[in-house]
Amino acid sequence: MVKFSVKLLDIAKRGVLLNRLDARSIGVLDGDRVQVINPANGISAMAFVDTTSTIARQGTAGIYAITNERLQVTDGGGVEIREAGRPASLEYIKKKMDGGRLSKEETLTIVRDVVNDDISPAELTAFITASYINPMDMDEVEHLTRAMVETGEQIKFATKPIVDKHSIGGVPGNKISLLVVPLIAASGLKIPKTSSRAITGAGGTADLMEVLAPVEFSAAEVQQMTEKAGGVIVWGGATNIAPADDRIILQEYPFRIDARGQMLASVMAKKYAVGANLVVIDIPVGEHTKVPTMQDGRKLAREFIELGERLNMRVECALTFGDIPVGHSIGPKLEVMEALRVLEGAKEPNSFIQKSIALAGIAFEISGKAAQGTGALMAQDLLVKGKALEKFRRIIEIQGGNPDVTSNDIAPGEHQFVVNAPASGYVIGMNNQSLITLARIAGAPHDTGAGILLHAKKGTPVKAGEPLFTIYADRSWRLQKALEEGRRLMPVLVEGMLLDRIPSGREF
Amino acid sequence: MVKFSVKLLDIAKRGVLLNRLDARSIGVLDGDRVQVINPANGISAMAFVDTTSTIARQGTAGIYAITNERLQVTDGGGVEIREAGRPASLEYIKKKMDGGRLSKEETLTIVRDVVNDDISPAELTAFITASYINPMDMDEVEHLTRAMVETGEQIKFATKPIVDKHSIGGVPGNKISLLVVPLIAASGLKIPKTSSRAITGAGGTADLMEVLAPVEFSAAEVQQMTEKAGGVIVWGGATNIAPADDRIILQEYPFRIDARGQMLASVMAKKYAVGANLVVIDIPVGEHTKVPTMQDGRKLAREFIELGERLNMRVECALTFGDIPVGHSIGPKLEVMEALRVLEGAKEPNSFIQKSIALAGIAFEISGKAAQGTGALMAQDLLVKGKALEKFRRIIEIQGGNPDVTSNDIAPGEHQFVVNAPASGYVIGMNNQSLITLARIAGAPHDTGAGILLHAKKGTPVKAGEPLFTIYADRSWRLQKALEEGRRLMPVLVEGMLLDRIPSGREF
Question: For all residues of chain B together, what is the average pLDDT?
């Protein structure tokens, strides 16, 4: 145990910076693990070591910002540092690598070490990779779900039912929560919806809602607002609900993997932790989504339902058409405009409206609000009568936004370019991934006005020179970049009906 | 592409530190990958982003020391930064996760990205984990070996044969290179021996040799010194030979894994890169080593031989007894003393001498220096006649050490504690791992005088109060800590011959 005086380092990372000579004397190298103790409050934190010859003098330890969120030392204060032992988690991760099955306690130990930063991103990646290759069985998935719940905050409502809804993603423009949540809340059911920001997409539900109101709230605030307004749409990352999940998703990101067991646990832990007992899950099925075939979709649905039963939650899944974008808009402000227009009475786009009322209808049926087969009608009725708009305004208000906002108040990016059909024909293909990439290059989700508005969808006829889609950007250089890339990406394909021409007079 | 002025950060890590607002504007988050270009020399480097609000002002980019070893920018100079694409390696790693087999080109791309730091430690860990769970076949091992060689420096000697020797490790006190290398060089054969520092052990061969002479040399220096002296014993990490291997080993370390394919490639790449065409491999077999049974040892030996054939190298393996330490000493100075004493003429310890001459003897036989079955005798002769000592002094001299050093000049740690037998009986057990842990707690390998000297080995009788082993330390608090832990670790077990007592008069 060696004493150091503290130099706070405003670098948004975990770790400790030691003078090279001090590190040698403690017996650690760059990247090794040490225990840092704040003797003033008794708090200790694991930290990984960086070394320097100049920035920290001998006897001084630099403490990075995220590690100090935990330690709470002051600049010039004192800490004690010692070589840290090897966390038990590493044994359990090794066990998973070797094809073993993890117990409840072993899983909880790993998840707790993830949340406390006691294992490194690389060590967490080993766990994720091992669980991807040696898939978890349903017992392990249940352990992981419960561990994710237990290592974060939980909401306990006084009354049931509590409804929740989740889309497993992979489809651009999937703004349905902006309709489904107000619809469900308008029926008198409670829905404390936590959602994500985009990682690989052009806008997560939280990015969309943030156009209209703040989305960062504590778990206690989520509960209070839901009690008052019937529903909320907030960013899950701010709540400390199932915090392990964000870390896992971050490490999966480079490989674009979404291991089945982790995905099941991720979704259900967040629903369980907000107190939901009725859950509707949207599983988009399509060649370019996470679920390529109906058969895969049915299997995944059965797994969600089984996991739900183990957790005393009633789950119903909807397999939805995922081959093309939902509605016409991709990108935060464009999607919000489209959603507001529908709430204000627009009868289009049909794909967006039908999907939203179908999912809300399932919630009405499983909660007993509507008889079997009549849920969608009830949802349609709430939409047409303006009850969903009224409720959405209440939700915007309780989150601190302007409840009088209308679709006309939302201004998408001022820099625009209309891409026209090069020839007459039919829209024969839309590439979801290319559409998302193009929206991101244009600046979405960070530039909220950036995105894509589709004028012609798959299967519709277009004439040469008619608009196919418009690219929006908040910054002109972003638009420029999107135009350059757009030529290569070809997100929308138009082809004539004449597929081949047989020379006249040719013999068959 | 955004321009920044440079602030050099003396922190021994890779990466770039951006102001939070600049990072948002480029569209990157903490941990994202950017391309940093030095316009002055055209060099570009991939870097991972940390963010700050204060340490780098807007428009300024902090460049960490290891990234700048590549970029070579000056403080106050300029760099350009842009969002970086996703390296192709990640697709190939994903392919390995999915059970695919990697081609030569795919493997080379991954290894090149590892060496250039274009993939993160977590991404490399995913590759290692995937290759551990989905083992490489011999084609993939050959690809990996060649890729490791091609991405580092290589030595090409004008004449053959070039001999090399490797122990796959797992046995404490395995100082045999200090005998084997001088023996082989004394015969007139050339042996450019690169070795490692301890990661989990109490002293690698490089740590031992450093007691006597510098060990950090470039590949060109290794070649020149070998041409002159016949052999060297240097630290491989300084040579830039097969540099990918060090990165891989570092990421394997937390899980104490040594995936078969990577181990084969790691050993053989280093031998191939130094130009060796005759290789002797020591495979210690025993319950607590990396190779638990003779059957495992034979299988591993066949794989080394096959890989050698693919690389036009002749390999011979020796399965050796790995259940107890080699010789009596563990820790840099203690092991060097023991090796020097044997070179100076000591007839003990038998285990150390016999193992060393056996391995040198194999080299003599496969090189044609000795007839089949007479290699060990030749080695014995070189040792007894002082030729090995003479050659070792020459090696020490050429590496810049004092060639007149004797075993009496080496002083182990001044703080010592003798652990005595608690009762009369036999030494029935020695726990290799506990011995290594104890030596490390006492300060080895960093404190070179720290370690353990065994007075009674497994199977020998001891009387109560007779010394079992001595713990050495350079610092008194380290000795204290070793004593505390030693009680728990029980590295040496003594038990009476009377295993059970049957009450007289009892019926059977």
Answer: 91
Taking the model in full, what pTM does it have? 0.88
Cα–Cα distance between B458 and B461 in angstroms, integer?
9
Please give the Cα distance from B337 to B412 (Å, whole number): 9
Tell me whether B123 touches chain A (CB under 8 Å): yes
Asked if A134 reaches chain B (Cβ–Cβ under 8 Å), the answer is yes
Determine contact: B66 vs chain A, CB below 8 A.
no
Closest Cα of chain A to B28: distance in Å? 10
For residues B212 and B401, the answer to whether their CB atoms sit within 8 Å is: yes
What is the C-alpha separation between A81 and B52, in angstroms, rounded? Answer: 24
- Shortest alpha-carbon distance between residue A249 and chain B (Å): 13
* H/E element, A133: helix A121-133
Which residues lie below 8 Å from residue B410, measured CB to CB, with a gap of 6+?
A: B211, B333, B336, B337, B340
B508: Cα separation from own chain's centroid: 56
Q: Where in chain A is the domain with CATH 2.40.40.20?
A: 2-83
CA distance A280 to A290: 18
From A65, A93, A250, residue closest to B255, measured CB to CB: A93
The rounded distance, in Å, linking the Cα atoms of A376 and A231 is 19
DSSP A237: G
Residues of chain A with CATH 3.90.1170.30: 415-495
Query: Considering only A11-25, A297-311, B246-260, B407-421, which range has the smallest mean pLDDT?
Result: B246-260
Torsion-angle region of A331 (φ positive above 0: left; ψ -120 to 50: alpha; else: beta): left
User: What's the pLDDT score for residue B496?
Assistant: 53
What whole-number distance in Å separates Cα of residue B270 and Cα of residue B155? 10
**Partners of A3 in beta bridges:** A80
Chain-chain contact of B55 with A122 (C-beta, under 8 angstroms): no
A9 touches chain B (CB under 8 A): yes
Right CATH for A163-404 from 3.40.1030.10, 3.40.50.620, 3.30.70.1230, 3.40.640.10: 3.40.1030.10
Answer for the pair A208, A384: CB distance below 8 angstroms, yes or no. no
What per-residue confidence (pLDDT) applies to B83?
82
Chain A nearest-CA distance from B73, in A, is: 18
Residue length, chain A? 508
User: Looking at the domain that runs over A2-83, which CATH code has it been given?
Assistant: 2.40.40.20
Say if residues B46 and B38 touch (Cβ distance below 8 Å). no
Phi then psi dihedrals of residue A139, to 5 deg? -60, -45
Start and end residues for every CATH 1.20.970.10 domain found in chain B:
89-134
Q: What is the mean pLDDT of each run of 10 residues along chain A (508 residues)?
A: 91 92 84 92 92 92 94 94 89 96 97 92 95 96 98 95 92 92 98 89 92 97 97 94 90 84 95 96 86 91 95 94 88 97 94 93 95 95 97 98 97 93 80 88 92 86 88 93 82 59 42
Residue A365's alpha-carbon distances to A296, A359, A361, A369, in angstroms, are 25, 10, 6, 6
Distance in angstroms (rounded) separating the CA atoms of residues B203 and B56: 41
Segment B449-468 shows an average pLDDT of: 88
CATH topology of domain B163-238+261-407: Pyrimidine Nucleoside Phosphorylase; Chain A, domain 2 (3.40.1030)
CATH topology of domain A89-134: 1.20.970
How much is the CA Rg of chain B, to the nearest whole Å?
A: 26
Residues, chain B:
508
In the set A113, A164, A245, A258, the catalytic residue is: A258
- Structure confidence at residue A495 (pLDDT): 67
Q: How many CA atoms lie within 13 A of B383 on its CB side?
A: 29
Contacts of A18 in chain B (CB under 8 A): none
Q: Domain B415-495 carries which CATH code?
A: 3.90.1170.30
Name every chain B residue with its beta carbon within 8 A of the beta carbon of A254: 86, 90, 120, 122-123, 126
> Chain A contact for B488, CB < 8 A?
no
